[in-house]
Amino acid sequence: MSLTPVERALEVLRGGGLVAIPTETVYGLAADASNEQAVRRIFAAKGRPADHPLIVHIASAEHLPHWASSVPAAAAALADACWPGPLTVLVPKAAHVLSVVTGGRPTVGVRVPAHPLTLELLERFGGGLAAPSANRFGKVSPTTADHVRADLGDLVDYVLDGGPCPVGVESTIVDCTVAPAQILRPGGIADEQIAALLRNDVAPAAGPSRASGMLASHYAPTARVLLADSADEARQLAAAHPGAEVLDRTDDLVESARHLYDDLRDADRRGVSVVVAVMPPALGLGHAIRDRLTKAAASG
Ligand code: TXA
Ligand code: MG
């Protein structure tokens, strides 16, 4: 009998292989988090430096105490309210968590992704899946199975196709090992919601997101990205750069986030040299979109 896609993915993961998994945010490049050899293959496939830690994906919040030496109250409250969903909590790592996963740090990032196929996969797998975004290091994250295939080709053993990612930007990362907790990367859950859940006992992201291993320049398309604060400013900038295209989805932040990476990839596919992006307001998903556009622009 032929295997279902989830069964095929399970077989590859149990054999120490790499599977691209759909999540609500972006596609991840997953390996068994307790198999050191398999996790090493992730870094090789991505071309990612070994000191950049990976997020461990788990089936439900019940598994969090297995990966954490202790669960801070802030992590428990956020997990309870947001999982499955686009939130990653940093917690002190349990002794068994491989240092290849945490980049040698004493903390581990954990999340429960909200995607039916990947949740089924995680439940049947039983363990944790270490997974960064399934793109080559420094490039734009993939939000479709085709993006993954275009970026990684044969470097990934199997692509579990779960359709386009509905959120479109990565998870919000909250460091729960410090007091107050700190948002390290704005993402799919708005900063305002994190603040409300923690009764304002949280420090906001300071400037472009700065989780360890994060660089000022990241999420970079080949096209040069220029930032504008308004549609008017964007038109002026575009007029000054022959061949420039304006990217303005500020009227709908949900759609803007959902299409952000495909918009940038599409500009590259069409050979556009300059993208002038209009920055959304710093509100809700606007925090994450501003962060990613700022990084895309920083690559020059
Ligand atoms: O939505 C997401 O979070 C996606 C999907 C696949 O889950 N994953 C993702 O992973 O964006 P990645 O590796 O591309 O970005 C995770 C970021 C990295 O910048 C990494 O440095 C940071 O999280 N990170 C992970 N564990 C950490 C830790 N223990 N301490 C500090 N930073 C950590
Ligand atoms: Mg990434």
Helices and strands, with pairings:
Elements: H1 5-14, E1 19-21, E2 28-32, H2 36-46, E3 55-57, H3 64-67, H4 73-82, E4 87-92, H5 99-102, E5 107-111, H6 116-125, E6 129-131, H7 145-152, E7 158-159, E8 172-175, E9 181-185, H8 191-197, E10 202-203, E11 224-228, H9 231-240, E12 245-247, H10 253-269, E13 274-278, H11 286-298
Parallel strand pairs: 1-7, 3-5, 4-8, 9-10, 11-13, 12-13
Antiparallel strand pairs: 1-2, 2-6, 3-6, 4-5, 8-9
Threonylcarbamoyladenylate binds at residues 23, 25-26, 28, 52-55, 86, 88, 90, 102, 105, 107-109, 113, 131-133, 170-171, 173, 211-214.
Please tell me about this protein's structure.
The protein is of the alpha/beta class and 300 residues long. The chain contains 11 helices and 13 strands. The chain has helices at 5-14, 36-46, 64-67, 73-82, 99-102, 116-125, 145-152, 191-197, 231-240, 253-269, 286-298, and strands at 19-21, 28-32, 55-57, 87-92, 107-111, 129-131, 158-159, 172-175, 181-185, 202-203, 224-228, 245-247, 274-278. A 10-stranded mixed beta sheet has the order 7-1-2-6-3-5-4-8-9-10, sandwiched between helices. Strands 11-13-12 form a 3-stranded parallel beta sheet. Helix 1 (5-14) packs across helix 6 (116-125). It is globular, with a radius of gyration of 19 Å. The N and C termini lie far apart (52 Å). The chain binds threonylcarbamoyladenylate and magnesium ion. Residues 132-133, 141 line the site of magnesium ion (MG). Magnesium ion binds at residues 132-133, 141.
